[in-house]
Design brief:
Blueprint lengths: L1 E4 L5 E4 L14 E5 L3 H11 L6 H4 L4 H4 E4 L2 E12 L2 E11 L4 E5 L4 H10 L8 H38 L7 H42 L6 H67 L14 H22 L4
Parallel strand pairs: 3-7
Antiparallel strand pairs: 1-2, 1-3, 4-5, 5-6, 6-7
Helix pairs in contact: 4-5, 5-6, 5-7, 6-7, 7-8
């Protein structure tokens, strides 16, 4: 899909057609969402730019992501997006020419739609660099919101973990197991999100440095100040992402530690049952033998004596284990 934007951020969608794409003098920004080869060709013929294809956007080498050629800057970076409640990254390409900006992406991004909505009624855009910096600002702000949500999830997980640690003995082990399993799922999703955020922040940081160095005369003093502010925001988010990563690792270690404690508790219970069950089994087996010379068979209270030994063989190990602090 091809969408054209003028300096007032008014959108005009271009239907699929085989005719050449006609761009007006007021066309400042061309946005392509999951474009076909035919749509790429139409935009290339209309602008004279060489647009990155999907496999080029997915390249990880900085030399492939950041290219300056004939006054045109071709840049790409992974950007966070949400799908079915989970955060992922998708590569987004920016082609910055002297008069126009072209963006290429495979998914609908909330940061783009929020930026367009926020421009309604605002002052007209002052060139393609202004539009690019506004989009990058929206991407960074959206990423900050996502990372704050991850931080809130981890805070809730932290409270949940240590509440489990302070549980009383009446809570069922199966319920504890289910809560620990849910906790591991949240930690896993958070770790995956911070990993994606790290990739996106690294790409944005390199893109901003490249834009400031290779933008030339089109990057005015106001633009450089905005770029510096965005770089500081990216650096701050990088520090926050590092803290989140450390917290994810800490909570993962804590959760696994509590899982081991619960497993050891179960094994200890089984060990106590085994230890307590062995002596009465021995007594019952001993008196279950049918030999004529067993004097207890002739005792008037032989049966009661056997029951007494069974009870005693249970009580003595339990008292001993209690003294040793096993339970």
């Amino acid at each position: 899909m091809i969408t054209l934007y003028d300096p007032a951020a008014s959108a005009r969608e271009i239907p699929p057609a085989a005719t050449p794409l006609a761009l007006g003098d007021d066309t400042l920004w061309i946005d392509l969402i999951d474009p076909s080869d035919a749509e790429d060709d139409r935009v290339e013929r209309a602008t004279g730019f060489i647009l990155p294809r999907p496999h080029q956007l997915a390249e990880i080498e900085p030399s492939s992501r950041l290219v300056a050629e004939d006054g045109v800057l071709m840049m790409s970076t992974p950007v966070l997006y949400r799908e079915e409640g989970l955060l992922h990254t998708t590569p987004v390409g920016f082609v910055l020419g002297p008069d126009r900006l072209v963006t290429v992406r495979a998914h609908t991004l909330k940061s783009f739609s929020d930026y367009v909505a926020g421009r309604q009624g605002a002052a007209p855009l002052d060139g393609p660099v202004d539009a690019l910096l506004g989009l990058l600002d929206g991407i960074i702000a959206r990423m900050a919101d996502g990372m704050e949500a991850v931080g809130a999830d981890l805070d809730a997980v932290s409270k949940r973990i240590f509440n489990i640690a302070q549980r009383d003995g009446r809570q069922k082990p199966i319920r504890i197991e289910r809560r620990l399993r849910e906790t591991l799922q949240v930690i896993g999703r958070s770790g995956d999100t911070t990993s994606h955020a790290r990739d996106s922040l690294l790409g944005l940081s390199r893109l901003l440095v490249f834009l400031a160095n290779k933008g030339g005369d089109r990057i005015g003093q106001d633009h450089r100040e905005r770029i510096e502010i965005l770089r500081q925001d990216v650096a701050a988010l990088g520090d926050y992402e590092t803290r989140l990563t450390d917290k994810v690792q800490f909570l993962l270690d804590s959760t696994l530690g509590f899982i081991n404690i619960e497993q050891n508790r179960t094994f200890k219970l089984l060990t106590i049952i085994s230890v307590v069950g062995i002596p009465p089994t021995f007594v019952v087996g001993l008196y279950g033998m049918n030999f004529k010379n067993m004097p207890e068979y002739d005792w008037a209270y032989g049966y009661q004596w056997g029951l007494f030994l069974v009870v005693l063989s249970i009580v003595v190990p339990m008292v001993w284990l209690r003294v040793k602090g096993w339970f």
